[in-house]
Design goal:
Elements lengths: L2 E9 L4 H21 L7 E6 L2 E9 L6 E9 H4 L8 H9 L8 E5 L2 E10 L4 H14 L20 E8 L2 E2 L3 E2 L2 E4 L1 E3 L8 E3 L6 H7 L6 H18 L3 E2 L3 H8 L6 E6 L9 H11 L3 E4 L5 E9 L6 H26 L4 H4 L7 E3 L3 E2 H18 L6 H10 L7 H5 L6 H9 L4 H9 L14 H20 L13 H15 L5 H16 L11 H17 L5 H9 L5 H14 L5 H18 L16 H22 L3 H9 L2 H10 L7 H18 L10 H4 L3
Parallel strand pairs: 7-10
Antiparallel strand pairs: 1-3, 1-7, 2-3, 4-6, 5-6, 7-8, 9-10, 11-12, 13-15, 14-16, 15-16, 17-18
Helix pairs in contact: 1-4, 6-7, 8-9, 11-12, 11-16, 11-18, 12-15, 12-16, 14-15, 15-16, 16-17, 16-18, 16-19, 17-19, 18-19, 19-20, 20-21, 22-26, 23-24, 23-25, 23-26
Length: 703
Amino acid sequence: MARDLLLEVGAEEIPASFIVPALEDLKRVLTERMADARLKHGEVRTFGTPRRLAVLVRDVANAGEDITKEVLGPSAKAAFDAQGKPTKAAEKFAESLKLSVDALGRTTTAKGEYLSARVEEKGRPAEAILQDALHAAVHGINFKKSMRWGDVDTAFARPVQWLVALLGDTELPVVLGDVKSGRTTYGHRFLAPGPITLKAPADYEAALEKAHVLADIGKRRAELVRKVNAAAKAAGAQLLEDEGLVDQVTNLVELPSPVVGSFEERHLDLPPEVLVQEMKSHQRYFSLTDAKGKLLPRFIAVSNTPVRDEQLSLRGYQRVLAARLADGRFFFDEDRRTPLADRVEKLGRVVWQGQLGTYLEKVERFRSLAGFLAQATGRAGEAATVERAATLSKADLVTGMVGEFPELQGVMGREYAKAGGEPDAVALAIFEHYLPRGAEDALPSQDAGALIGLADRLDSLCGIFAIGKAPSGAADPFALRRACLSIIRIVLGRGYRFSLSAAVDEALRLLAPKLANVKRKPGEAAPREQVLEFFRGRLKALWGEQHRTDVVEAVLAVGFDDLVAAKKRLEALSVLVGHSDFQPLAAAFKRVVNIVEKQGKDVAGGQTNPQRFTDEPEKNLHTAFTQARDRVGERVRADDFAGALKEITGLKPAVDTFFDKVMVMAEDKDLRENRIRFLTEIGALFNQVADFSKIQAETAAAA
């Protein structure tokens, strides 16, 4: 009979950001070990609060599954001597399996013939499997920071207080540090501090809820959202949405209990972002607005326990916030005493990256690159705004406010630029060059900020790749993946037409003095190729979310130097592959490609000579091709890729007739090579839109 499994690690308050990754590790290690041991089970759920990490596995089998497997021994040559008698190798192999040599079989592999045997491996009892699996799970959690306590050598996020390990009603032995497992858990620290004895894993969630703990993160989050929205409504206000703050507060409490507080109205003359950041970053308070979205002098704080004396509690919350807002006002007033322009020189003392220099050097590079992009995109009229905004764009990094709240960089630059009398366009560009900050963030609303943002990110991408610190696996310390996606979003969102490779070349040229002594590994691709391939990978992932992967590959294969054109080609091709008549078109093109790939390398360069055509079908195809080529060129220049594809599609009947009636591989060498050159030109016409050979034509009709 299947039984449920429960593992819980109880500890002192675990940091909120540690909880979800720790639960993922706990679940992964446990289920992997169970899978390796062939121990079947049902649903797996995780639970987490500041004081506990738990996993509940339903319907765990009583033992791992039995299997029969083939075991290979020594090679047949090594197993028998010249007289055909078994060698020591054969005898030891048989002995290890408790079989006679005569009972062994033979198996032929790619490396030759080997002695073999089919053996049955019995599944281990669940208790034995889980004892090892649970030990591995609790010791396999990777925390960003760990600590040791007492005299134990084991490290964990916080000191471990209790362990629960139950399989059905049976306790399993697990040790973590100086704590041994049992069946005792604990409820809310203040509302139900006593021990709770669990009879079975199925009782876990309900027992904790009765003890004022919402252990399921999803349920606790929903309850938090419900309560804070209700509190905001009761106060005649609206909650300023912040999903990240909701997630954080969810894992700071076991039972959310919100209260509404207030601060002095005079602080509303500070920038709203400052007020929100003061409440969010240090205090984890939710901000409140009126119906029009204007910030109110009120907030919601969430306690881990229902408040008995609300006024006493509020005085504490409000006193702490008042001190924080006083600090914010001090920074704001002091920072405005020094104009942004006077702070630029101080950037020369702030290192951006050891090998690539200071922020001042970075600003000088991307200011020049932004000017290049303004010219390349036809925005030369923005040059003066771009020049001034780029110069000031990082100056707020050396202000007191940004030093305290790095999240406000750009925001404070905008505010201090306005206070210093800079034009509104310059102030806005300083703020917007950081946009988008994330996947859901807005794009810059004007060109100056967008161009500076592109230049800043291109400088980072090219510089970091050039010094050999490209992202690897999950490691991306300079957030280059996000930077690359932001560049793509800005370019497409604002419709900028320029050569991406030329922009990369210019960025690397500006970086050249810093790269003079960089040594490259033998065989390593040049930075230019690495950066462009990185863009290709991001485009493939981004566009692959909405379009067929093979269609994305087909478009990228013929280039993405003009990102806007590449996107238009993708959209046109995605429509075409959905038509029922696309499959035969793709098949015809692949036939062209196959011949060119196999025979084209042996054909000398040059153009097709129409005078060499002897058969009517090839003459007709050449006439149709010549007319289509001109029309396709016109359509491509006009960004009408759907029209270009329609012109290309119109060649299909003539191409089919050509292959049916004309022998491409003619005995006459000149005739044969002329036909191959012709097919090469036809392939090049197709490739103005996409590489059709990349498309899985057999699935196109089902698209």
